[in-house]
Amino acid sequence: MNTYNTNGRASAQSGESAVATPFLTRSPRLASFTLSGATLGSLMLLAPTALAAEASSDALETVQVTANRIPQLQNDVLASTEVITRDEIDRLQASSLVDLLQSRNGIEIARTGPMGNQTSLFMRGTESDHTLVLVNGQRVANSADGLARFEFLPLSAIERVEIVRGPRASVYGADAIGGVINLITRGGTTPGQHAEVTVRAGSDGTFRQNAQFSTVEDDTRLSANIHHAESDGFSARDTGSEDDGFEATGAELRLSHDFSQRATLSLGIANTETDYDYDDCNFGTSEDCTGEGSQLVLDGSLLTHLNPNWDMTVSVARTRDEYENTEAGSDAGRVASARNEVGVRHDFYTKVGTLSLGIDHREESLDADGPFFIAGGYEVDSRYATGIYGNWQVQQQRHHLNTSIRYDDDNRYGHQVTGGTSYAFDLTDAQQIGASYASAFKAPNLIDLYSPYGSGNPDLDAETSTTGEIFWRLQQQHWHVGVNAFQTDIDDLISYEGPDFTPINIDRSRIRGVELSSGWKGEALSVNLAMTWQDPEDRDTGKQLKRRAQRFARLDADYALNDWNFGATLRGSASRSDTDADTFSDTRTAGYGVFDLRTNWQVMPNVKLSAKLDNVFDRDYQLVNGYNTQGRYFEGGVTLSF
């Protein structure tokens, strides 16, 4: 698996356990295709814009926990958010988290081949390590390069995906410049014992199996999930001569218990092991490239109701990941990283709003070796950071205000202060306008600071950003529409442009963009549209940032007919600036459009059949210059419920 992409970044992902709903009772409110202008216009006509109805309780009651670390109604969050539920995951039949997220508002994916190969996620045009990815609120990025591995995050184990677009550093600390993605694993919710088994098979020798069990008795909830996936894949390089396969096996266990109505304890463990093939190793001379890895996530939280207006949450977590590569039959290096985290947060519910005060601390360490390391490897292989933060939310009639501030101290590069303020005004019961301004930062990773290859720079400063945003949204009974316009300025970007490719703070970038989201949900038909226009610019060169398009969109439509469901997805992107995989010169990767179909049939209450056909027209396109993507792909399966 490659470690870096051409601009020195790779994929990133990472929050805090989703605690149960006791908070909600105290919520103030609850008391060959290029995406041309013509194509965008055609898609836009599909957005419902002339329908009127009463407010929908389903939409208004969608709850998310990621934006401010406490459960809130989605309409009360003064940020651009999206929640992907388990029902939607099942309906879309996405093969991976990457497929589920591709082309949603503000999100672009670049991957150098099939599953297991290097994957980069760009949120709102920011760098691939500017998105904080969490599992049950805990960071999962590798401590060496600050990047999460998507192959360790199986969709079969995820109950919901919460996306927050825009900076959240004043809530979470480092890395949340572009946004936050929180993956909440499956747990028991329905009283009694329940089991679900899914078996699927598809093209390219693909097989997937998953078993889910849950039991809920009185105040105790227990769930377990076991999953396995394997595929022969396809050649990662467009010049390759052999398929690059992938295999992953894992399990998750989650337990929670309510102690009367005074406290809730939640414990979880998740482990995934993978094997993968890739191309272009041994300095691009070999296809004989393999790797294996594992990731373990342990998390626990205790929510205590100290009095009717005061809650305290204590959380602890440990993550450990390891991966080892072999290139042309020779050892290519091993990296094992571990992270321990502990946090305490107090939430006070008053007549004038909700005040949250908290402190968190994390320690990271590395155990790495490789044939190309200089003597001694990493000069420093550990770090720790402590953050203190406060968040205040208030609603007075039609006025909503949220403000937060945080102080972070990292023993390897220094301290940083970030903050943010958001304000919204309810024009009507269903319509709202607002604005926000926030700062954020990205801490240098251990490779930047103390590279084992001899090119580290311990004097690096953090990358810093400011983001201004305005928004308008309308929520009706069957449909919704929202528009967000933003500008993000990033300074002191870390670039490997110093002597002997030493990283230095030099680059500046500015991303301006507009996101449109719209959807309709009727008794039988549901339609969701996401469109993004952006201008991701390197201000030092005036050029478009690499692997980021100026326009991309996604349209999902589903229709229910008795026990049948039919659906389709159209996703597309304009061309992107890139680096030629063979000559390393600047180039452009063409735009694309991909059309997917899916269906499922509830044969009987406990038996469901499903099938999908991805890339129906067998579109030949690339997300990264010189690397293949999935051609026409068929997959079907059966789910048994007990």
Please identify the structural class as seen in this structure: mainly beta
Count of spatially separate domains: 1
* Separation of the first and last Cα atoms: 40 Å
Which parts are unreliable, with pLDDT below 50 for 5 consecutive residues or more?
A: 1-60
What fraction, in percent, of the residue positions are helical? under 10%
The helix count comes to 6
Which geometry do the CA atoms define? Answer: globular
Summarize the structure in words:
There is one protein chain. The chain is 5% helix and 56% strand. By secondary structure, the chain is mostly beta strands. The chain has a single domain (64-641), classed as Beta Barrel (Maltoporin, Chain A), CATH 2.40.170.20. It has a 22-stranded antiparallel barrel. Strand 20 and strand 21 (414-426) form a beta hairpin. It is globular and about 65 Å long. The chain starts with 36 loop residues before the first helix and ends with a strand. It comes from Cobetia crustatorum. Keywords: Cell outer membrane, Ion transport, Membrane, Receptor, Signal, TonB box, Transmembrane, Transmembrane beta strand, Transport. This is TonB-dependent receptor.
